Amino acid sequence: MCRVELTGSVINKNVKLQAGNTLFNNQEDSLIVNKASIERGLFRSVSYKTYKDEEKRKNDNVVEKFCKPDPATVMGVRPERFSHIGEDGLPKIGSRLNGGDVLIGKTVEITGVEGEKLLSKYTHKDISHTMKGSDSGTVDKVMVTSNLDGETFVKVRTRSVRIPEMGDKLASTHGQKGTMGMILPQEDMPFTAQGITPDIIVNVHAIPSRMTIGQLIECVVGKAACFTGKFGDATPFDELSLDDQSQLLHDAGFQRKGMEVMYNGKTGERITSSIFIGPTYYQRLKHMVQDKTHAIARGSLQNFVRQPIEGRSKNGGLRFGEMERDCMISHGASNFLREKLFIDSDNYKMSVCGKCGLTAIKNKGGFECRTCKNGSSIKEIPIPYASKLLFQELMAMNIAPRLMVDEK
Q1: Which one, of 259, 217, 257, 223, lies nearest residue 240 by Cα?
Q2: Phi, psi (5° rounding) for residue 391?
Q3: What is the C-alpha to C-alpha distance for residues 35 and 14, in angstroms, rounded to an integer?
Q4: 23 confidence band (pLDDT: 50, 70, 90)
Q5: For position 280, what pLDDT does the model report?
Q6: How far is C-alpha 167 from the geometric centre of its chain's CA atoms?
Q7: Does residue 24 register a pLDDT over 60?
Q8: Is 93 helix (H, G, I), strand (E, B) or coil?
Q9: Rounded to an integer, what is the distance from CA 172 to the centroid of its chain?
Q10: Which helix (H) or strand (E) holds 45?
Q11: Which value, to the nearest 10 degrees, does the dihedral of the CA atoms of residues 72, 74, 75, 80 take?
Q12: CB 166 within 8 A of CB 292
């Protein structure tokens, strides 16, 4: 349960909190949260993640094996990544792991042509299960069992304590969800005549359009329940009258509708508007900014179109789509647009015949056009690899796209 305050009354929707020279007004559905409340443990949670792996068999022979790889006989081992792994290949409980660290040590026997080449030195290859680059946590539990086929099966559970930070998602039980847009020190938060500071400040604009009046009623009933020591039942099976609750608040010395006079935390001045404040049940949702934040300078490319791969899990890039392209065109930022969609994506040099405009091929150290038997006027043009691929696919369909290149 949190003390929640609405910035301004329901009637006066344009009131903002003025604190010294700074204007605190939470944007849209974002929330202002009291830093001291977070330090006391508000919305602190533990996130658990489970990783699985198994030893695979082939013809009743163990091909894969859980163990701590020996750099002398195992190919591709980086010893520093195995410092927390035991001889059985499993991590020690309580070990702190970061992205790239080995979770489960595993090797596979080198066989076939590859084995013949490396038999002089290595007999096994490292295929250990590692943590993704964005993950981190402490080893909480390790379970070893066997599956239906009799193969050894391992589960490793990690945990990480999540302290609320800017960008994390909170919601009331009435569906009023919002992200933490600001964490404010308690001394800068507004306070009541009794010295109470709110845990959360909610933007009042979120109430009328969503018609979540139940949240306001919960706040009034909860406030009345706090001062009378009774339960507030707002189910359809109980006759709850808002007027009765208002009377209870009035009898306790408060304004009937939950409004209170508040003071500026920075200047100590009285805020001119009465502010709606009271207890409301808020909860933290699983959508945390730590699991979603992503940035990359350079990454791997797709084999087929030679463009950057997509997705945080693959350590890929962010899609610069059609609508982003439209924004760049409207701003006249053509050089930036070329850089994003061509130079940073799938820059490629293609040889084209200057006479017929068809693709030239490499022949005896140079290029020539097989169509018009020309090898002198071949021009190299910069083109997206995806475009070159499209032209080749069209040619496979008996359609001849011609790139007529200007002499300049």
Answers
A1: 217
A2: -60, -40
A3: 25
A4: very low
A5: 94
A6: 10
A7: no
A8: coil
A9: 22
A10: strand 45-54
A11: -80
A12: no
The angle subtended at Cα 370 by Cα 368 and Cα 371, nearest 5°, is 125
Q: Which domains does the chain have, with CATH numbers?
A: 2-44+165-284 (2.40.270.10), 47-162 (2.40.50.150), 294-343 (3.90.1800.10), 347-396 (3.90.1800.10)
Tokens 């979603």 identify what position? Answer: 292
The residue length of the chain stands at 408
Residues 384 and 343: their CA atoms lie apart, in Å, by: 8
Backbone angles phi and psi of 80, in degrees to 5: -65, -25
How does strand 366-368 pair with strand 361-363?
antiparallel
Q: For residue range 210-238, what is the model confidence (pLDDT) as tens digits? A: 999 999 999 999 999 998 888 888 788 88
Q: Does residue 134 register a pLDDT over 90?
A: no
Side chain identity at 151, as an amino acid letter?
E
Which single residue is written with the structure tokens 């068809």? 358
In this structure, which amino acid lies at residue 234?
A: A
Where in the sequence numbering do the catalytic residues fall? 29
Cα separation, 214 vs 207, in Å, equals: 10
- Nearest residue to 395 (alpha-carbon basis) of 363, 357, 367, 366: 357
Q: Can you read off the two tokens belonging to residue 253?
A: 């010395």
